[in-house]
Structures are given as C-alpha cells and as structure tokens.
Specification:
The complex is a heterodimer of chains A (307) and B (281).
Chain A: H1 2-50, H2 68-75, H3 77-109, H4 115-123, H5 130-140, H6 147-154, H7 169-194, H8 198-206, H9 212-223, H10 225-240, H11 244-249, H12 261-270, H13 275-303
Helix pairs in contact in A: 3-7, 3-10, 4-7, 7-10, 10-13, 12-13
Chain B: H1 4-7, H2 10-37, H3 42-46, H4 59-69, H5 72-103, H6 109-121, H7 128-137, H8 144-148, H9 155-166, H10 170-178, H11 183-191, H12 196-212, H13 215-220, H14 229-239, H15 245-265, H16 267-276
Helix pairs in contact in B: 2-15, 4-15, 5-9, 5-12, 5-14, 6-9, 10-11, 12-16, 14-15
The chains are: A mainly alpha (307), B mainly alpha (281).
C-alpha cells in the first residue's frame, strides 16, 4: 500500500513535470509556429488550391476548373520548352560541377602548397552577388568585344553569340552555373575528405593499392558516399531553381531557348497575371524537387558504404 | 604520422599546382575583368583589347556615372536592413523552438518536428504566389515587411539549432533550473551562448542567401527606394541600356564588394558556415 501511494505520488509529480514542460515548450515554439502557419503552411495549401482555379490577378472572382491548368500545360509550348530546358540545364550542371569539384578538392587536399589560396579563390563565386557576376559574364561572353571571343578569334576559331544564339544559350548559362556551384561543392567535399581517417589509406597501400587511382576507388569513393549524396541533392535542387542568371541575361530567350521553370512561374503570374496557371506550374516545380530528392536518397542509399 | 604530401618537392607538386592555378584563373576571370573594365574608358572597352591595365584610366567617370544615376548607397543599405531584419527574426523565432524540440519532452513534439522536416522539403519559391496575394491584400507590397516577413520562420535554422542543442549536456540546463531560471532565460542566457558556432554558421548562410536573392524582391518591390542590391543592378542595366560596360562593371563591383570583403577577412568562418549549413542549398 505504501509502495503504491508512493508510486502514485511519483507519477503525479512526473505528469506535472511533463505538463509544465508541454506548456513551456509550446510557449517557446509559439512565435515560430505562428510564422510557419502564416508564411509556409497556409501559402502552401493556398498554392495547392490555386492550381485548380482559373484565378487571374485583379479578377473579381474565380472558378474551380479541376485539372484544366495541367491539361493546358501539356499543350503549352513555352511550358514544354521550360521543363526541357530546366532538365537539360540540370543534367549539364550537376555532373560537371560535381566532377570538377571532386577533382579539385582531391588536388587541394593532396598537398600543402597554396591550399588556403586555392580554396578561397574557388569559393569566391559562392559569396558573390549572382546578378552582378552574371553581368560580368555577359561582358566576357560578348559576341564582338568580349575577351572569350577575342581569344577565339586570335586562335582562328569560330566566335559564337554565346548568349544570343539558341544553340549556345543553355550551354553558356550552364557554364555560369558550373562556375557558381564548383566552389560550393568543393568545400563540402573538402569537409568529407578531411573526415576520412588517414590509416585507411595506409591500410589500402599495404593491401596492394599502390596507384592513386586504386586508393581513390578503394578508400576515397566509398568513404565519400554520404557527402556525395548531399552534394548531388543540393546541386540538383539548386540547378532546378535557376532563375537569377536567366532573368538577368536572356529573359528566357532567344525564342524560349533558355526559358526555365521559375521564370515561367514568374512570367505567368506577374506578366500575364494568370495566378491559377502559375500555381499549377509551381506544383510541377515542387514535384520535380521532391521526386528528385526522393529518387536520389533511394538510389544512393543502396550504394553508399557508411563509414 | 608522416604525410607524404607535406614533404613532396616542388617539382613533384607541379602538376597539382598547374591544374589548380588554371582552375582558379577561370574562376577568378570574371572578378579580374570586372575590376579592369570598371576602370576603362568606353573607347577602350569597345576596342576589344585584352589588356587588363587600361592605357587611360576612367575610374572617376565610370563610378561617377553609377553614383549619379542610381542610389547605390540606398541599395546597399536596403540589403543590410533586409538581411539583418531577416536574420534577427530567424534567430528570435528558431532558437526557442529548437530548444523546445531538443531538450523538452512534451505532447506534440513529434508532430512539430514533422512539420519542420516538411518545411525543409519545400523550396521557398513554392509559396511565392499566395504570399504575394496575401501581402497585396494587407496593403504591404513594396515595403520592408514584404521583404522580411516571408523568411522569418526558417525551418532550416530550427533543424540546425536542434541538432546543435541536443549535444549540449542536460546538466547545464538542470543546473540553471535549480538556480531558479525559467525556460525563457535558459534559452537566451544558457543555451544560445553555448551555441555560437551554429549561430555564426547560420548567420553567414542566411546573409549570403538573402543578399543574393532576386526572385522574391523582384515580385514584391516596385519602388526604387526599396531596391535590394540585386534589383539595383537590374535597374541600372536598363537605365544604361546595358552596353556601357565600364559603368556596369563599376556598379557590379560596388554591390559585390561588401560580402566578398567580409569573406576575405573571415574566410574560415565563411567556409565552415557554408559547410555546416551545406545540407540546405
């Protein structure tokens, strides 16, 4: 009996502790919860609803139109170009910016000379204003007075209109994208590389991995697995969100050759005021990001050797 | 342990140095040309010469044009106000929430954390259209509020701080409770001072992201007085009809410089900050 009442008292005290904790916790989280509701959750639900309406900015009312907006997307050539370009851009930028970053990270990590300088130089684009740097690239890539074409001309090579010709514009924007992402991926790889224990390399060498390539294949690559997963997902998401360079340099032109998803959303909503349709395109954009994140987590999970 | 890399001779190190130097030159090219062209008179720019040092300097002319035609100082000030406004609210809202998620046992914790993870998956551009309509309805378009408010709840900050707070010893917090401190003072006087590495990392990540943002300011701002640095450059481009590269590069340099200089002074912190927060793009 004594035991029981003691237990009850204990558990009562326990419950009180949890209750006061619960109260304090919700009070502490309240500002964040309110901001989350107003700025993330409600707008997210609203964009879901908006995508199934024909709402236009300034219109008195709107009607629910089911999947009409999505059906229209299938016929919309600008949207088709937009989604094609966004993926082409990502498929160009992701492997190259990751491959180059990995190579440079291994080279930086491989010696002491100039390590700090190279790291800082390669990282600089990450902290630079994209719109301003895009303007610098516009000069570098200028068809007649740009240094790139001046050098090509001196070498007797062709001088394309990098940002003005539909066959080159995505390549040029992709190149700028790679330029932006290499430094970012590089520091992530550097962090991953320094976390690999040195002993593993010595052990691999004793086991007969004499060439640098063998050591890379046996130690670096598998140990870098988790970092690689992050870097792939981040670069993919960043690439699908390309907007600043396109808006600054080409406005989607020439002839939609550089139209991308975020610009289509911006254009539909704030140029044509078609918010319903813009919201539907937004959902496609969101779906792309979610599906890619999911696939990559699944795919790479299976191949990663967690250290 | 002897690291062969440290002791390697210059000759053996040469291939590595050559490749890294070439890569750095390509990466630095737009910066180098930006500085060079911002000092060149228009005639020299249009001659297409590859000389980096101008034969005739036009610094006063190019930079003068920028200051004459657009209020660069205002753009920079707006950038500072918006970035710090966002950062202060993000810290103010995220830190207590993260502490609750990390250290308190309470009903609804899993649900709240689930919402944090949901928020992490949604890129901020997704909510742009409804937010625009909301701000328009509230008559808040074209204001600092419109630039700052959407970013006040950073689920990423909550996630990051939660990870960090979980590693703090419970004894630290219990000792503060025994001293009679309430949960609010524990958050600000015990937990946050012990979380400076996470706070600096997040601050750098947040400022870099919002200083560079174009998408949202472009949507909600119409008045030149409220232009952020990114919008300022866009505006200057159209004012200048885009071909006066000397002045354009001067403007580009002026708005890029603040963050780049900050980076050069605190390289390690920046790189740590971005690495630590690298999880989120």
């Amino acid at each position: 009996m004594v035991d029981l009442s003691q237990n009850a008292a204990l558990s009562r005290r326990h419950t009180r502790r949890i209750d006061s904790d619960t109260l304090a916790a919700w009070a502490l989280a309240l500002p964040a919860i309110i901001a989350y509701l107003l700025m993330i959750l409600l707008p997210l639900l609203a964009v879901l609803a908006l995508a199934f309406t024909d709402y236009e900015l300034g219109a008195r009312g709107f009607a629910f139109v089911g999947f009409d907006n999505f059906a229209e997307m299938l016929r919309d050539r600008t949207f088709a170009a937009s989604i094609r370009n966004t993926f082409a851009y990502a498929l160009f930028v992701v492997p190259l910016s990751i491959g180059i970053a990995l190579l440079l990270a291994i080279l930086i990590e491989d010696g002491a000379r100039g390590r700090a300088f190279f790291r800082a130089a390669l990282f600089l684009p990450v902290v630079s204003l994209t719109v301003a740097m895009a303007t610098a690239w516009q000069y570098l890539l200028h068809p007649t007075i740009g240094p790139v074409n001046t050098i090509l001309r001196d070498l007797g090579l062709g001088t394309p209109n990098w940002l003005g010709a539909s066959e080159w514009v995505l390549v040029s924007l992709g190149f700028i994208g790679i330029w932006q992402n290499v430094g970012f991926n590089l520091v992530l790889f550097l962090a991953g590389l320094t976390a690999i224990p040195r002993e593993l390399y010595s052990a691999a060498e004793i086991d007969g991995a004499r060439s640098p390539w063998a050591r890379f294949r046996l130690v670096t690559w598998p140990m870098l697995g988790p970092t690689m997963l992050f870097v792939v997902i981040i670069t993919m998401t960043r690439s699908i969100q390309v907007f600043d360079t396109v808006q600054t340099l080409t406005q989607g032109g020439p002839n939609n050759a550089s139209e991308v998803l975020l610009r289509t959303i911006y254009q539909e909503a704030f140029h044509y005021f078609r918010f319903g349709y813009g919201a539907a395109v937004t959902l496609v954009f969101l779906a792309c990001v979610l599906v890619l994140t999911l696939i990559q987590t699944r795919l790479i999970d299976r191949k990663v050797h967690y250290g | 342990m002897a690291n062969p890399a440290q002791t390697r001779g210059l000759l053996a190190d040469l291939p590595r140095l050559v490749i890294l130097t070439l890569a750095s030159l390509i990466i630095l090219a737009p910066f180098i040309w930006m500085v060079s062209v911002s000092m060149k008179p228009q005639s020299e720019v249009f001659s297409g010469s590859l000389d980096l040092i101008p034969s005739e300097f036009a610094i006063a002319e190019n930079y003068g044009k920028v200051f004459d035609r657009v209020p660069v100082a205002t753009y920079l000030l707006n950038g500072v106000i918006v970035c710090f406004g966002i950062l202060i609210f993000q810290i103010l809202f995220a830190v207590p929430a993260a502490y609750a998620l990390a250290k308190l046992r309470f009903a609804g914790r899993e649900v709240l954390f689930g919402f944090v993870v949901l928020g992490l998956l949604v890129p901020y551009q997704t909510t742009a259209l409804p937010l625009y309509l909301g701000f328009a309805q509230a008559g808040l378009l074209d204001s600092y509020t419109a630039l700052i408010a959407p970013f006040t709840c950073s689920v990423f900050a909550i996630f990051l701080f939660r990870q960090f707070f979980r590693a703090l010893p419970d004894d630290l917090i219990n000792a503060a409770r025994i001293d009679g401190m309430g949960e609010f003072s524990i958050v600000w006087r015990v937990v946050l001072p012990n979380a400076w590495p996470a706070a600096t990392a997040f601050a750098i990540f947040s400022v870099v992201a919002h200083w560079n943002d174009l998408f949202w300011p472009l949507i909600v701002i119409q008045t030149g007085d409220l232009y952020t640095p990114a919008m300022g450059i866009l505006a200057f481009r159209s004012v200048e009809a885009g071909e006066d590269y000397g002045a354009l590069m001067a403007a580009a340099l002026l708005v890029t410089a603040p963050l780049v200089i900050a980076f050069l002074f605190a390289q390690r912190r920046f790189i740590e900050g971005i690495t630590m927060t690298g999880l989120k793009g």
